[in-house]
Design a protein that fits this description.
The complex is a heterodimer of chains A (233) and B (232). Chain A is α/β, with parallel strands linked by helices. Chain A has helices at 3-14, 20-32, 34-53, 61-71, 81-108, 113-116, 131-144, 174-183, 192-197, 215-226, and strands spanning 120-125, 149-154, 187-191, 209-212, 229-232. Chain A folds into three domains: 3-53; 56-117, no CATH class; 118-233, Hypothetical Protein Ychn, Chain: A, CATH 3.40.1260. In chain A, β3 (187-191), α9 and β4 (209-212) form a beta-alpha-beta unit. Chain B is mainly α and 232 residues long. Chain B contains twelve helices and no strands. The chains are: A alpha/beta (233), B mainly alpha (232).
């Protein structure tokens, strides 16, 4: 392989998008070519700089609420606890009616079957040891069932992987994976009690994650009010 | 780049099945959509309103943040990005029956992209000062003059030291086609295949846009660092 071809492959290489034959041929070239190695280094430096200085933007809460109200089944979670109960009752009824509808409809149409099994799952991560394994599980989970809504709640030492600059065992930034999951609709929520106890400022948390007052309260709220299944990681 | 060199990478690529392929072909606003699919959709599934809302809430609304992130980088203005996402949701809801399969993300982001393009075009016609790239910044013109052929290590060092503002400004200044490819890759973590679906271009084009976008960024950040070094 010569430099011009190596040049064309280099972006696909640093992006992990090449087939193995291309990877092998390119790596052989890189071993013998200092100029292309310098280009690779420069590319990786650029990727790291972009990862560090740009972030996934969370849409304004008001917009979420407005669009949910307009196109969703129900309005966003009400603020007053007293009213939440009423709203939940109404929602439960609506969901029941919908479930009946959906069941009836699904038998009549093809291609809808998989949609019914879509679930909502909360992943509870409370130890820094299990974070990578949890994310691997989550990746497989979403691959098997892309429409599942997943919320990750981090608590105690489990918040470590959501700190800026945190890396996994192989030295990869957790931020990259978190950002990808966020892009796939996964929510990351961090227990503020933990942050206070461990004296971590909210600016130390990845911008993709949001704070909740208490991780445990959030998990039980998701289970009780929103019908989430619980996964301990 | 011969196409056989590209595979679905284990890390990034979602399984591609026929439903997925069909879903990305049905992006409202795309050229193909206008020709073929608009008519077919009107005679679509005819879901009940409640059923449609439940499905929409489950499949589309979880991707609002992804939609907003893309819109912010395309129109480069928070308020207009909100407008674009809201308009996109309206379109997505109206043509929701066109979505095949359950992975609404590339479908929705394709709609967001098209909406941002027409928003940019509209604002340019109205004379509203929304930043739009000057004409003639297509791939060929950029490829002709701009690109540094072999960056050396000092450039990598300069890029590493570039501060937040430099990096963000360089990305903001990138021509639209390159910017969308780089943003979908670096911020959304999309595979080349998914980017191709969102932008309605072949994978080879995605590759070259990402590569050229990055060359321009390297040039901007590397040079800036270098000139600061000599200046002080």
């Amino acid at each position: 392989m010569r430099c011009p071809e190596a040049n064309r492959l280099l972006d696909g290489y640093v992006d992990d998008q090449l087939e193995v034959a291309g990877v092998l041929a390119l790596e052989e070239h890189l071993r013998g070519c200092a100029r292309c190695r310098a280009r690779e280094e420069s590319l990786r430096a650029l990727r790291a700089a972009l990862q560090r200085h740009t972030e996934f933007r969370v849409a304004p809460a008001a917009m979420h609420a407005a669009l949910r109200a307009e196109f969703g089944v129900r309005a966003a979670a009400p603020v007053q606890p007293a009213r939440r109960r009423v709203a939940f009752g109404a929602t439960a009824l609506a969901m029941l009616a919908l479930a009946a509808w959906g069941l009836q409809g699904a038998f009549e149409r093809e291609g809808m079957g998989a949609a019914r099994s879509a679930g909502k799952v909360v992943y509870h991560i409370s130890s820094s040891q299990t974070a990578s394994a949890a994310l691997r599980t989550l990746r497989n989970h979403l691959e098997a069932s892309p429409e599942t809504k997943v919320v990750v709640v981090a608590h105690n030492e489990g918040v470590d992987f959501l700190l800026r600059g945190a890396r996994d065992e192989s030295g990869e930034l957790f931020a990259t994976a978190v950002r990808q999951f966020k892009g796939r609709g996964v929510d990351f929520r961090v227990c503020n009690n933990t942050l206070v106890r461990r004296k971590i400022g909210s600016e130390g948390i990845l911008p993709e994650a949001t704070l909740v007052p208490s991780g445990i309260a959030e998990i039980s709220r998701l289970q009780e009010s929103e019908g989430y299944a619980y996964m301990r990681m | 780049m011969p196409p056989w060199l590209l595979v679905d990478s284990l890390t990034y690529c979602w399984p591609l099945n026929d439903e997925y392929r069909a879903s990305v072909r049905n992006i409202p606003g795309s050229a193909r959509w206008n020709r073929i699919d608009a008519g077919a959709v009107l005679g679509g599934w005819d879901l009940s309103d409640g059923e449609k809302r439940a499905r929409f809430e489950r499949l589309v609304l979880p991707h609002l943040d992804a939609a907003y992130s893309l819109a912010v980088w395309l129109v480069r203005d928070d308020a207009h990005a909100e407008e674009a996402v809201q308009e996109s949701c309206l379109r997505a809801f109206r043509y929701f029956d066109a979505l095949r399969g359950d992975d609404a993300r590339p479908w929705l982001l394709g709609i967001v992209r098209n909406t941002c393009y027409s928003l940019l075009q509209r604002s340019r016609q109205d004379g509203v000062p929304l930043p739009f790239d000057e004409e003639g910044c297509g791939e060929d013109t950029v490829a002709a003059g701009a690109v540094v052929s072999f960056p050396l290590n000092p450039e990598a060092a300069a890029i590493r030291e570039a501060d937040r503002e430099h990096v963000r400004n360089a990305l903001r200044a990138l021509p639209l086609e390159f910017r969308e490819a780089v943003v979908l890759r670096e911020i959304h973590g999309f595979s080349y295949r998914e980017i191709a679906a969102v932008c309605a271009v072949p994978i080879g084009t995605v590759m070259s846009r990402i590569a050229r976008g990055r060359r321009l960024l390297q040039q901007a950040l590397g040079e800036r660092g270098a000139s600061e070094d000599t200046g002080t």
